[in-house]
Design a protein that fits this description.
By secondary structure, the chain is mainly α. It has helices spanning 15-21, 24-27, 31-47, 53-71, 84-96, 109-145, 165-190, 209-216, 225-230, 233-259, 287-310, 324-347, 353-361, 367-376, 381-397, 407-411, 427-433, 442-461, and strands at residues 150-155, 158-164, 267-269, 349-351. Strand 1 (150-155) and strand 2 form a beta hairpin.
């Protein structure tokens, strides 16, 4: 197949090199966006009298037919097409004749791919954001169903203080809220129209970039032609946001893996989201959580690929940048798949309430309440901390827990203890006392959930 650029060449492209340099198998994902960009471009060329309105109309009809074929999955490509831009142009010429060659007037594949990727990312950011909202709704639902269940809050993977399970889950809701915020902010930098920058220097044709931007729904155009064709910051930023999002999903998965183990037994996973062992018949494995945890590495890998790809490129466009698409596409698909899987995972966990009650009866997680009790009675907190440490040591030496101690035993450690100390060493009392803003008391968590529900409702209405 002859190439549109082969005028200065004496030899045909080596078949292996043609296949090696082709990206068509990857960037077919951009077909719809490439055609949409071409439709806007040809409308502008006709409007600006850069080509005749009659020619523009014929090209427009051809592109609209190709777009319909693309929506039905009927477009056919070969490695000789080189990339999605050349493929669409070839199809156009086959459909309407040589007049189709006028489509590429006043543009380069360099600004064309930048446009396609921005159009693609606008849609994907919106879809990822909706999937995050879906997971947030699941989190709210499970939190409400278990609104008053206590679990041991952990620091350093050791029992720290009792917290409401609903409060614990809402921590992930807040992480996901930040992820949405980052994507919303990233969207602003994606949503800038690059077409018209040409190959590097702009174009001598009287193009109307603002008109093209309006047709494609962009609020602004890029400011510097060199930066426009060499910039992939918007992709790096999106994949960076995705990496942080995946880190949050992975942390929740890690918790679920740990909490569903026999050693912890806090939660049980529904059979529908688990698999067994091919050798050990008793096994019930948390595969969904493990796979999301593993797929997080893929998104990190995409981010590192992109950073490494761009780190030493001289201005402006270089063919290396063709390799941005596999990393971007894989990150997008991995994130979307994992968000869907995580929503199913969280929706199918069941708390082992009896187990949790027993665990909280047999630990020292209310020790801080005793120190706070003494501090409120005038003892310096550091002194109270040391004294309660001795009480814990006493319990360990005598094979007791805090709730096993009598008022008389407390009194041997300090005269500041009154009989009401026995009311301060239950998970319920501990959680109820945490009424500071953002704390784990039931009133706070209920308010947090209502605020979260209202926030999601407003976002949905928008």
């Amino acid at each position: 197949m002859k190439k549109p650029w082969d005028g200065r060449f004496k030899k045909a492209l080596d078949p292996f090199i043609e296949e090696f340099s082709s990206s068509i198998d990857v960037d077919v994902k951009l077909a719809r966006y490439d055609i949409q960009g071409s439709i806007a471009h040809i409308k502008m060329l006709g409007r600006a009298n850069i080509i005749s309105k009659n020619d523009a109309q014929k090209i427009l009809h051809g592109l609209e037919e190709i777009l319909q074929e693309a929506s039905k999955g009927k477009l056919k490509y070969t490695s000789a097409d080189e990339d999605i831009h050349m493929a669409i142009e070839r199809m156009l010429v086959e459909k309407i004749g040589k007049i189709g060659n006028k489509l590429h007037t006043a543009r380069s594949r360099n600004d064309q791919i930048a446009l396609d990727e921005r159009l693609y990312l606008r849609d994907e950011i919106s879809e990822v954001s909706e999937l995050i909202k879906g997971l947030q709704r699941v989190i709210i639902n499970i939190a409400q169903k278990n609104i008053d269940v206590f679990i041991p809050g952990l620091t350093h993977m050791q029992h720290a203080q009792p917290v409401l399970f609903s409060h614990y889950l809402m921590a992930y809701f807040n992480m996901l809220d930040r992820d949405k915020g980052r994507l919303k902010d990233c969207f602003k930098r994606v949503n800038i129209m690059p077409l018209g920058a040409g190959a590097i220097a702009g174009t001598s044709f009287p193009v109307e970039r603002e008109y093209v931007a309006k047709l494609l729904g962009f609020p602004a155009i890029t400011k510097n032609s060199i930066d426009t064709v060499s910039d992939r910051d918007f992709i790096l930023e999106f994949v960076s946001c995705s990496a942080i999002l995946m880190m949050h999903l992975s942390r929740l998965c890690e918790d679920i893996i740990i909490y569903s183990s026999e050693e912890f037994g806090y939660v049980e996973l529904d059979d529908s989201i688990c698999t067994g062992s091919s050798m050990m018949p008793q096994k019930k494995n948390p595969d969904v959580a493990e796979l999301i945890r593993g797929k997080t590495a893929r998104v990190y890998g995409s981010l590192m690929t992109l950073f490494t790809l761009m780190k030493s490129l001289p201005l402006s466009y270089n063919r290396d940048m063709q390799e941005d698409k596999p990393a971007l596409f894989d990150a997008v698909e991995t994130v979307k798949m994992c968000l869907k899987a995580e929503a199913k995972l969280v929706a199918n966990i069941k708390l082992n309430k009896k187990r949790l009650e027993n665990i909280l009866d047999k630990d020292f997680s209310c020790a801080t309440e005793i120190a706070d009790y003494l501090a409120k009675k005038g003892m310096p907190f550091r002194d109270a901390h040391k004294l309660v440490g001795r009480i814990v040591r006493y319990c360990i030496d005598n094979e007791k827990y805090l709730r096993d101690l009598t008022y008389s035993e407390f009194k041997t450690f300090s005269n500041l203890f009154s009989e009401d100390i026995l009311d301060f060493i239950s998970p319920n009392s501990s959680v109820k006392s945490k009424s500071s803003p953002g704390g784990t008391c039931l009133k706070n968590v209920k308010a947090q959930i209502e605020k979260a529900k209202n926030s999601l409702s407003k976002e949905f209405a928008q």
